[in-house]
Amino acid sequence: MDIGFSLEETRFREACRDWLHAHVPAEKRPLNAADAIDFDKAWQRRLFDAGWAGINWPTDYGGRGLSIVQQVVWLEEYAKAHAPWIGANFVGINHGGPTLILNASEAQKAYHLPRILKGEAIWCQGFSEPGAGSDLAGIKTRGRIEGDELIVNGSKIWTSFAHVADWQELVLRTEDGSRRHAGLSWVICDMHAPGITVRPIRKMSGQTEFAEVFYDDVRIPLANVVGGLGNGWKVAMSTLSFERGTGFIADQVKQSQEIEELIAAARANGMMKDDRVADQLAQMRAEVAAVRAMTYRNISHVVRTGQPGAEASVIRLFTSELGQRLERMAVLLKGADILDFRYGDDDAVADYLRGFAATIAGGSAQIQRDIIGERLLGLPKSR
Amino acid sequence: MDLTPNDEQTVFQTATADWCRDNMPLEAARARPAGLWQQLEAMGWTGMTAPGMDLDHATEALVFAELGRFLAPVALLSSAVAARWTGATVKVALALPADGGARLFDGEGATHALGLFGGALGHFEIGEAPPSAPSLDQSATLTRIAGPLTIVAIDHPHAALHLQILAAAYAIGAADAARDMAAAYAQVREQFERPIGWFQAIKHLCADMAVRCAVARSQLYYAACALDAGDAGAAFHVAAAKRLADQAALDNGRANIQIHGGIGMTDEAYPHFCLKRAHLLQHVAPAERTALLAA
């Protein structure tokens, strides 16, 4: 075991740092949705042009073909440089693209992957439904096969960036009378197709970045099925393994910035004199260090075996709950100033309110604990 | 960068666990046989940290986590640290400062003791010590000696960190043992006509135990590597590992008793061994808040 980086990795880190230092935009990511999407696309295009998009994606599809360690190095430097949040490109870059790399046909990969990397195509996720949240296998949205098309009816919910997305990773029921995990398919849905209606949902933090999506006789070519008809559950699980596994490395790295900022803030406003505050900060600093260690351990496992370790679900659960504790501390340090919050503000209060999603989205903390209990500890399945 | 054990380290780890399972089961922790220490010496665990052995802290941490899982004698910690920094080749008792004197653990057959006094590592001659008595941790005997003590300080800044990281590894071992004991019981104990591990109320307690172990172990690996590399942040990383390891050991120790229910509260059952060990380790080179908040 060692925590040193190779000469090549160190040179790569320096190159990341230099480029970010010169190119991170001075202005903040805009709050209103229309401006934010332009900002996200333009920034992703700059990353691509400079060779920083898809660092560990295959070169055939516009990636750099480098190692996952270099990907982590990039994300570490990205966070240190206070570079913008990935925003609307989250789904495409972090789990849509990786799912395609693993499961899609040549034609699907050749068309979609470069567009994701260049920021030309925004993706959203269509998994959850009003009646299928934690119980994802309860999906009711149906695709009836007619010729070489699926005719889709139903609805999806909690779809971030649905209003600006070009494509969706849509999981739906394609076999009549099928139940639970069987008879599902993972398809690429064109969000501009006739019959799709997007109804934005306002969060308690004020943003309307997520939405409910309705499908009314939407036609999707069968050629858009990924991984074969009826194999949707398996493909969806690979999506979730990216969403829960490597998709949140950027957030994990960001936490090491956040804890230092909180410690500095507590020293500046005198609250560090409060033993409870000091102890919580000390505790969280240890935990943030451990998150990096867990991430490194998980990455090492990927390098050694080609897949994340069994403890990947632990990282996701722990990081999401730690993130919420950091957000709660930021709010505590602001005292009664939090009462001045209004919709439209983009500050620690907004982060705190938005942050409740961390233990709900991508598998709730309760589902993650089920998975850890059953897969890591061999306890009997409750479901 | 690689935070998974290499092949050689895995061999060390596996060999340690195998030997412990056969010769030093956790279930026998309340009354270790008199000859155990000689066996441990013969296996090389007291001398593996000696300067000439060139064993890195990462490998030591892996081995001590396995020893800790079986609640190996706590004097292995002090003896291993003494071997590295004083050249001692004999058993050295573990000392915790107490009212100007010290509490000595596992003092039988030892002429010297080692511990942290005022933040610095030191060792001293035991002299005429009163006979040892039981302690909270029934695997360790306790002797109180009065001060003043003539402590010989060990100046190297890594010496105290060495004790801290080995104690952290022991605590992670205790946390692992509690987790595995709880999960094994939850698989077989039936209520409402099914294993209690089926119920999320129990399953999630077990999951949290696994989380605490994974978090602390990852930090242990990182800290050991930081120490090996002479990293500027090593003191912080070792303190962080100790803090998380102590919490894992204490919290898992408690959860294990809760999951066992009534039987978990008895002297006859084993869950209390892990909890009591956690309470002892918590006082061995504790992680100070100042170290965790240091720039």
UniProtKB/TrEMBL annotation, chain A:
| UniProtKB keywords | FAD, Flavoprotein, Oxidoreductase
The name of this protein is: Alkylation response protein AidB-like acyl-CoA dehydrogenase
Which protein family is named in the record?
A: Belongs to the acyl-CoA dehydrogenase family.
Q: Does the keyword Oxidoreductase apply?
A: yes
All copies of the Acyl-CoA dehydrogenase/oxidase N-terminal domain together span: 8-120
Q: Which cofactor does it need?
A: FAD
Organism expressing this protein natively: Sphingopyxis panaciterrulae
Domain (Acyl-CoA oxidase/dehydrogenase middle) spans 124-218
Record's InterPro entries? Acyl-CoA_Oxase/DH_mid-dom, Acyl-CoA_Oxase/DH_mid-dom_sf, AcylCo_DH-like_C, AcylCo_DH/oxidase_C, AcylCoA_DH/ox_N, AcylCoA_DH/ox_N_sf, AcylCoA_DH/oxidase_NM_dom_sf, Mycobact_Acyl-CoA_DH
Domain called Acyl-CoA dehydrogenase/oxidase C-terminal: residue spans: 230-377
Automatic annotation (TrEMBL), chain B:
Looking at the record, the residues that make up the Acyl-CoA dehydrogenase/oxidase N-terminal domain are 7-80
- InterPro entries attached here? AcylCo_DH-like_C, AcylCo_DH/oxidase_C, AcylCoA_DH/ox_N, AcylCoA_DH/ox_N_sf, AcylCoA_DH/oxidase_NM_dom_sf
The cross-references to SUPFAM superfamilies, in alphabetical order and at most eight, read:
Acyl-CoA dehydrogenase C-terminal domain-like, Acyl-CoA dehydrogenase NM domain-like
KW ATP-binding (keyword) present: no
- Start and end of every Acyl-CoA dehydrogenase/oxidase C-terminal domain? 165-269
Example GO molecular function: flavin adenine dinucleotide binding
Top-level taxon: Bacteria
**Keywords for this entry?**
FAD, Flavoprotein, Oxidoreductase
Q: What are the names of the required cofactors? A: FAD
Which protein family is named in the record? Belongs to the acyl-CoA dehydrogenase family.
**PANTHER family assigned to the protein according to its UniProt record, in alphabetical order:** ACYL-COA DEHYDROGENASE (PTHR43884), ACYL-COA DEHYDROGENASE FADE28 (PTHR43884:SF20)
Q: What is the protein name stated in its UniProt record?
A: Alkylation response protein AidB-like acyl-CoA dehydrogenase
Q: Which organism is it from?
A: Sphingopyxis panaciterrulae
